[in-house]
């Protein structure tokens, strides 16, 4: 192998990895509510403040992702899996369920969008939840340091 060649990678990026990268992204570049990426920075700015899901998109793709259809086909599944892991974690630790006027539950799972945009939600809570969801994924999917 020449010094200019990249060594082969053997590990697969997991949902936990993406969630940790999203948490780190928010810690470094900031958090926002109401939109995937802060609107007070130019669209070409590579590292805008992001919401929880926007940060997962950047962690997955390396650039802004406004919808999962913006992702390369190989990145869509890991992106959606990471969001699903976050939803499961939020259901257990930060449940917000929407009800209609008659009291019927409209959405049985906590929406990461609604949760992120809740006026009482803070950047620290979002970062903590992303890291907590990653730890939960590791606990459920790894045995002896190896993915199950």
Brief summary:
This protein has 148 residues and is mostly helical.
Provide a descriptive summary of the structure in words.
Helices cover 48% and strands 6% of the residues. It is mostly helical and 148 residues long. The chain has one domain (15-140). The chain has 5 helices and 4 strands. Helix 1 (15-29) crosses helix 2 (52-61), helix 1 (15-29) runs antiparallel to helix 5 and helix 2 runs antiparallel to helix 3. The chain has helices at residues 15-29, 52-61, 73-93, 112-117, 123-141; strands spanning 98-99, 105-107, 142-143, 146-147. The model has no long low-confidence stretch (mean pLDDT 86). InterPro entries: DUF6197.
The largest β sheet comes out as: 2 strands, antiparallel
Tally of helical segments:
5
The radius of gyration is: 17 Å
Secondary-structure element series: HHHEEHHEE
Structural class computed from helices and strand pairing: mainly alpha
Q: Output mean pLDDT.
A: 86
Key traits:
5 helices, two-stranded antiparallel ribbon, DUF6197, 6% strand
List strands and helices in order, with pairings:
Layout: H1 15-29, H2 52-61, H3 73-93, E1 98-99, E2 105-107, H4 112-117, H5 123-141, E3 142-143, E4 146-147
Antiparallel strand pairs: 1-2, 3-4
């Amino acid at each position: 192998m020449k010094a200019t060649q990249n060594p082969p990678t053997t590990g697969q990026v997991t949902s936990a990895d993406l969630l940790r990268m999203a948490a780190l992204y928010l810690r470094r570049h900031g958090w926002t509510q109401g939109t995937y990426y802060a609107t007070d920075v130019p669209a070409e700015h590579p590292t805008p403040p992001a919401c929880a899901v926007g940060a997962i998109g950047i962690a997955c793709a390396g650039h802004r992702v406004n919808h999962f259809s913006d992702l390369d086909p190989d990145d869509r599944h890991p992106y959606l899996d990471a969001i699903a892991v976050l939803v499961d974690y939020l259901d257990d630790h930060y449940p917000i369920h929407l009800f209609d006027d008659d009291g019927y539950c409209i959405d049985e799972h906590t929406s990461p969008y609604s949760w992120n945009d809740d006026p009482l939600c803070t950047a620290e809570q979002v970062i903590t939840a992303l890291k907590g969801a990653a730890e939960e994924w590791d606990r459920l999917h790894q045995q002896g340091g190896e993915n199950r």
